[in-house]
Specification:
23 helices; 4 domains; disordered N terminus; mainly alpha
């Protein structure tokens, strides 16, 4: 499943650990990629693919304080990475309700792909750490769900599932009308008969159509597809049923019959998107346009931000120059006011960018770009609305600060400063990356510190998003973008989380 990591990459990971004073993680290599034991089914709740049901039941039924040890034993007997990842996602969608908000306890589902991306980007010997963290986090969320009513996804109403030739139209109509019952059966019908690309072309649009739950809807869409790409499309039906249920979350009157602020950008952008020139993808890179768009994001509202995108595209500016501004703008919000809202500006932009580069529909791609531009002022306004005060720091005016050390020592110095003075760490990151254009050592250390020091789902969601998106900004901006990341990465000072020791003990 993973390509063999080179000896050089293995040594880089070890060097990163040494640079920040971390302990030996050799115990992880004892985990080898298992067929699942048989388990009984339970009438009423949705049944999963028979090959994965027993492993899902293991995760559901094992007490939290025993789960890591039992999974470790199964892995040593042959349970594969892919099976563990599939069971994690499916246990979450069957047992965790994405209500009242698509977040909170539902992060047990949202974080699965982020943990997977962290594994993909790591040396072989570290790859089980984020998965074991996600296993433990699932049990925490499962307990929260039990306290809130013990929701479980039920078997679909088979008598109401539309036939194949009507499933797509039925799903569109139900989603447009925010009709939960009709959506559920239509989602099951479409999952059984349509290809995953056709399904997610629809989901990309619905994930971006409203600004509720600070971007978690778009994040769930992207993470669902990305995890299915790894675990197999035979699991699409329960995932799609959970996803569509989450996308219909709202607190007000039926949005199809009202004019809520959260829905207005989508409706307006449907019209704006048709005013963009037909050859909009053939524009030229324009750093001045990136600066112009970034400046606008600091001041304008959601409507003006979308208009600005149309203006730039019709002037012949390449979409990449606009994406540079959007990703930098999200990072700048985190610099100006570190916290949960700005963090989600970054992770939502990552999800929308992924959808944009994955979609094959021109209209959808226009809408994703316009919606991301609209969402960033709404994130900014949400920060202020919660009583936050934005600093005047501009990301493109951040000044480099030379580290005292060089090479590996400079990276260690940066992450020590992350624990003490994030602004100073940002300046040192900028200076370090100016001198070392290849950021791999910085990235390896940042990711390893999440494994060892991370304590919540946002550590994984944020780090996976930002470490991926540094490649989605133009090279001239990568130093600035990664400098903004230190405002929510983990520093090297402080104790390791308890999961490292539990994992080590499980394998002893």
């Amino acid at each position: 499943m993973f390509q063999e990591t080179s000896r050089r990459r293995f040594l880089q990971g070890a060097a990163a650990a040494t640079a920040v004073g971390l302990g030996d993680l050799a115990f992880l290599k004892r985990l080898a990629p298992v067929s699942a034991a048989e388990a009984s089914t339970q009438t009423g709740r949705v049944q999963l693919h028979p090959d994965i049901e027993p492993t899902v039941r293991l995760l559901e039924d094992t007490p939290r304080d025993e789960l890591l040890e039992k999974v470790a034993a199964r892995i040593q007997d042959g349970l594969s990475y892919q099976e563990v990842l599939a069971a994690l996602l499916l246990a979450g969608v069957r047992n965790i309700q994405p209500r009242p908000h698509v977040g909170f306890k539902f992060h047990a589902v949202l974080v699965v792909n982020s943990a997977h991306l962290a594994s993909l980007g790591s040396p072989d010997q570290h790859r089980w750490l984020p998965i074991f963290w996600a296993l433990d986090h699932f049990k925490d969320s499962q307990a929260d769900d039990v306290r809130e009513g013990d929701w479980t996804m039920q078997a679909v109403d088979e008598a109401a599932v539309p036939p194949a030739h009507k499933a797509k139209a039925a799903l569109v109509e139900a989603m447009d009308n925010w009709d939960e019952a009709a959506t559920d059966v239509a989602a099951a019908g479409l999952a059984r008969t349509a290809g995953v690309n056709e399904i997610f072309e629809l989901m990309f649009r619905y994930g971006a159509r409203d600004f509720r739950d600070i971007g978690h809807k778009a994040i769930f869409v992207a993470n669902s597809l990305r995890t299915l790409n790894c675990i197999g499309y035979q699991h699409t039906e329960p995932v799609l049923r959970s996803l569509t249920y989450a996308l219909l979350q709202h607190d007000e009157t039926n949005p199809a019959k009202a004019d809520h602020r959260a829905d207005r950008p989508w409706r307006e952008n449907l019209e704006r998107s048709q005013t963009i020139r037909d050859t909009w993808l053939d524009g030229q890179l324009d750093p001045a346009a990136t600066t112009d768009m970034l400046a606008a994001l600091r001041e304008v509202d959601e409507h003006e931000a979308s208009e600005k995108v149309v203006e730039l595209l019709n002037r012949g500016v390449a979409p990449q120059s606009i994406w540079d501004a959007l990703l930098l703008g999200a990072g700048e919000l985190l610099v100006r006011k570190p916290g949960i809202v700005a963090l989600h500006a970054v992770t939502t932009s990552n999800a929308l960018r992924y959808a944009w580069q994955t979609s094959g529909n021109d209209d959808t791609r226009r809408m994703l770009l316009l919606q991301n531009a609209a969402f960033l002022p709404m994130f900014r306004q949400a920060i202020v609305g919660r009583g936050g005060t934005l600093s005047g720091q501009k990301l493109d005016e951040l000044q480099p600060v030379s580290p005292d050390e060089s090479g590996e020592g400079a990276v260690g110095e940066i992450f020590a400063d992350v624990s003490r003075d994030r602004m100073r760490a940002a300046g040192k990151t900028l200076a370090y990356l100016d001198a070392h254009p290849n950021p791999q050592e910085f990235i390896d250390t940042a990711r390893l510190l999440i494994f060892l020091k991370g304590t919540n789902a946002h550590d994984y969601k944020f780090s996976s998003a930002v470490l991926e998106d540094h490649l989605n900004v133009s090279p001239m901006y990568r130093g600035q973008f990664l400098a903004s990341s230190v405002f929510n990465l983990r520093g090297s000072i402080g104790s390791d989380n308890r999961l490292v020791e539990r994992t080590r003990a499980a394998l002893a």
